[in-house]
Design brief:
The complex is a heterodimer of chains A (282) and B (91).
Chain A (H helix, E strand, L loop, with lengths): L6 H21 L4 H11 L4 H25 L5 H22 L4 H29 L16 E5 L4 E5 L4 H18 L4 H11 L4 H25 L5 H21 L5 H23 L1
Antiparallel strand pairs in A: 1-2
Chain B lengths: L3 H31 L5 H29 L3 H19 L1
Classes of the chains: A mainly alpha (282), B mainly alpha (91).
C-alpha cells in the first residue's frame, strides 16, 4: 500500500494542506470535498486511502480552529455535542460500509454528493451577499437549553439566538456523519446549512459549531480506517502538518474576511470537481 | 466555582495540547526520516495518532466539565459520544 513518494508529494501535499487549513478556518468546513479529489486525481492515491488522509486532515483543522472558536464563544458546544451523538453513529456506519465498497463506487458516490453541495454553497453565498443577515433570532419559539449568544465584532455587539427543530436536525446529522465515513468529507457542508436554515443559528455560530462537530465525526471514521490499515503514514503526516500550518495562518489572517464571495467561488470549484470525479468513476 | 469561562479554557487547552503535541511529533518524525534515522516512522505514526485522538480527549473533557457544572443531560450526551468513539476504535 505504500505509494512511491515523489517530490510532487513533498511539495504539493503540505502546500495543499495549507490551503485546506485556510478554507476550514474561514468557512467552517473540513475541506474534504477538495482534499479527496486532489489526492485521487492529482496524486493517484487509491480512494480509500485518500478518504483516510482527508479524515485526519479534517480532525487537524477542526481541532486547531475549534480551540480559537471556543475561546471566542462562537461555537455552541451544547448544540454541538448533542448533534455529535447521531453524527458519530452515522460516521462509524459510513466508514464500515465504505471499506466494503469498490473504489469506483465510492468515487461515483463522491461525485454525486458534490453536485447538490455545489448548488447549496452557491445559493448560500448568494443569499448572504444579498441579505447579509442571519434569520431573526428566537422569535416566538420557546426557550431551550441550546439557546446561546456570542460577541459579533462585525456589529460590535452581543448577538443572541434561539435554537429550534433539534429533532430533525439530529436526524439529518446522522446522514452528515455517514458522508464523513463514506467519503472522507467532514459533513460541514451539510451541518452548516442545517444549523443555519433549520435551527436558526446565525451563520458565524453555525460555521464554528459545525467545525466543532466535524472533528468528532471525522475522528470516529478515522479510527475505523486506522484499524483497517487504510491510513498511509507518510501522506497523512505531510498533509496534517500542512493543514495545521494553514489553519493557524487562516485564524490569524482571514478571520474577518468576507466568506460569502469565497463561497460562490468554491461552489463553482465544487461543481468542477464533481464532474471530474464522476467521469473518473467510469 | 467552575464557570463557563473555565470550561471554555479547559476545552481550548485540551485542543491546543493535542495540536502542538502532534506538530512536535510530526516535525521530529520528518527530521528523523530526512536524517535517515529509524525513529522516523514511529514518530510520524505517534504524530498522526496524537491528532486523531485529540477530539476524543476533547469529548472526555466535556463529560468532566458538564458533570462538574451539574448539567447532567449534556454530560450524558458527551459520555455517549465518547462511548461511540471507543466503539469505532474497536470495530
Amino acid at each position: 500500500m505504500n505509494a512511491e513518494l515523489t517530490l510532487l508529494h513533498f511539495a504539493g501535499l503540505p502546500a495543499f494542506g495549507v490551503l485546506i487549513g485556510l478554507l476550514g478556518s474561514v468557512l467552517g468546513v473540513g475541506g474534504g470535498i477538495f482534499m479527496v479529489p486532489f489526492l485521487v486525481l492529482a496524486l493517484d492515491v487509491p480512494i480509500h486511502q485518500a478518504v483516510a488522509v482527508s479524515l485526519a486532515a479534517i480532525v487537524a483543522t477542526s481541532s486547531a480552529v475549534a480551540a480559537v472558536n471556543v475561546e471566542r464563544g462562537l461555537a455552541n458546544i451544547r448544540l454541538g455535542i448533542t448533534l455529535e451523538v447521531t453524527t458519530a453513529v452515522g460516521s462509524i456506519l459510513g466508514a464500515l460500509v465504505a471499506h466494503r465498497l469498490p473504489a469506483n463506487a465510492v468515487q461515483l458516490l463522491f461525485g454525486l454528493t458534490l453536485l447538490p453541495v455545489s448548488g447549496l454553497m452557491f445559493l448560500k453565498g448568494k443569499r448572504s451577499l444579498k441579505a447579509g443577515a442571519a434569520p431573526a433570532a428566537a422569535a416566538g419559539g420557546k426557550a431551550t437549553a441550546f439557546d446561546s449568544g456570542f460577541f459579533d465584532p462585525a456589529v460590535n455587539g452581543q448577538t443572541s439566538y434561539g435554537v429550534r427543530n433539534m429533532a430533525p436536525a439530529s436526524f439529518i446529522s446522522f446522514f452528515a456523519g455517514s458522508l464523513s465515513g463514506l467519503l472522507g468529507i467532514g459533513g460541514g457542508v451539510v451541518q452548516v446549512p442545517v444549523m443555519n436554515l433549520l435551527c436558526g443559528v446565525p451563520m458565524k455560530a453555525a460555521a464554528a459549531t459545525s467545525n466543532f462537530i466535524i472533528g468528532v465525526s471525522a475522528a470516529a471514521s478515522a479510527y475505523v480506517y486506522f484499524r483497517k490499515g487504510f491510513v498511509p503514514l507518510e501522506l497523512t503526516a505531510l498533509t496534517v502538518a500542512g493543514v495545521l500550518a494553514g489553519s493557524f495562518i487562516g485564524i490569524k489572517l482571514l478571520y474577518r474576511a468576507r466568506s460569502e464571495k469565497l463561497q460562490i467561488v468554491f461552489s463553482a470549484l465544487t461543481l468542477l470537481v464533481a464532474l471530474k470525479m464522476l467521469t473518473g468513476a467510469f | 466555582m467552575f464557570s463557563e469561562r473555565d470550561f471554555a479554557k479547559l476545552i481550548q487547552r485540551t485542543l491546543l495540547a493535542g495540536v502542538f503535541l502532534s506538530s512536535l511529533l510530526l516535525l521530529a518524525g520528518f527530521a528523523a526520516a530526512l536524517a535517515g534515522a529509524s525513529a522516523g516512522a514511529p514518530l510520524l505514526k505517534a504524530g498522526v495518532l496524537a491528532i486523531i485522538l485529540t477530539p476524543a480527549a476533547r469529548v472526555a473533557m466535556l463529560v468532566y466539565g458538564y458533570w462538574r457544572s451539574g448539567e447532567h443531560y449534556f454530560a450524558l450526551a458527551s459520555f455517549i459520544v465518547l462511548g461511540l468513539l471507543a466503539v469505532s476504535l474497536l470495530v
